[in-house]
Amino acid sequence: MDTRTLGTSGPTVSALGLGCMGMSDFYGPADRAEGIATIHAALDAGVTLLDTGDFYGMGHNEMLIGEAVRGMPRDRFQVSVKFGALRMPDGSWLGYDARPAAVKNFLAHTLGRLGLDHIDIYRPARLDPNVPIEDTIGAIADMVKAGYVRHIGLSEMGADTIRRAAAVHPICDLQIEYALISRGIEDAILPACRELGIGITAYGVLSRGLISGHWKKDSAGATGDFRAHSPRFQGENLDHNLALVEELRRVAAAKGVSVAQIAIAWVLSRGSDIVPLVGARRRDRLTEALGALEFDLTPDDLATIERAVPPGAAAGDRYAPQQMAMLDSERR
């Protein structure tokens, strides 16, 4: 497994990370045993970075990971945890809480669910509009000093907020959506991170399955999970975006790889400071994703991909309007 270092202050991790969210939430029913088997297969393949959030399944995802890694040497894996999202028992959203006392409370419960004595990277899931980012980062920094957290990360923050956070404590990485059809970070956020020595852990590299090469208009889950509310999966937007996937399929076929593999390899090619997170829920999808590490994209390949899926080519926003409004990274 190739490795990459998250920023100038962060840990060295596997070149691909495993996003575990879908094993517990948002994509319909999941198989617990298959989820654990997928985590084990990832670790056996050399993946070290496991990404989760304390609100994924209201703690279910952390408990799942805790079960999967129980008894393993602690230096074999790294856990990245997002916190702050508030949810009702029915799964609906109540907002965010990133007050210092809440930060420390969330962390205590996360450590218990995971069965660990420290978290490798701890990060607010979103900017709390009612709490200065300096206060939130300061609270995590207290937990670093106490030994409960190793590194501090951010998620979906804009360039100004990133700078303010980094002035309080070194930030190892920003977790944010980045894919062939989600390139908004290239304008200001990615340059700011590189200026500050902050890495990127990229989620949504397959755009929630849309550019995986497996999604069809009548795919199961199109109306049964949160993608039903995603503009990119609706009506004419979906037709347009699937046409882009067919263009990408021709590029992948000429290379002798799958659509998912070429989409992941494109993210890998964007810089050694970028670590894609693949949200595989099954071992076969994990195996396919890992195949993206087995070839390099040439300059000609990259030019062909750019022609097939140029910047801004996707139809529809990456989240529904209400969720887009909560993203500090989308504020202009």
From TrEMBL:
Its EC number is 1.1.1.-. Keywords: Oxidoreductase, Plasmid. It comes from the Bacteria. Residues 16-308 form the NADP-dependent oxidoreductase domain. One of its GO terms (molecular function) is oxidoreductase activity. One of its GO terms (cellular component) is cytoplasm. It holds the Pfam family Aldo_ket_red. Residues 312-332 are annotated as: Disordered. This is Aldo/keto reductase. It comes from Azospirillum lipoferum (strain 4B).
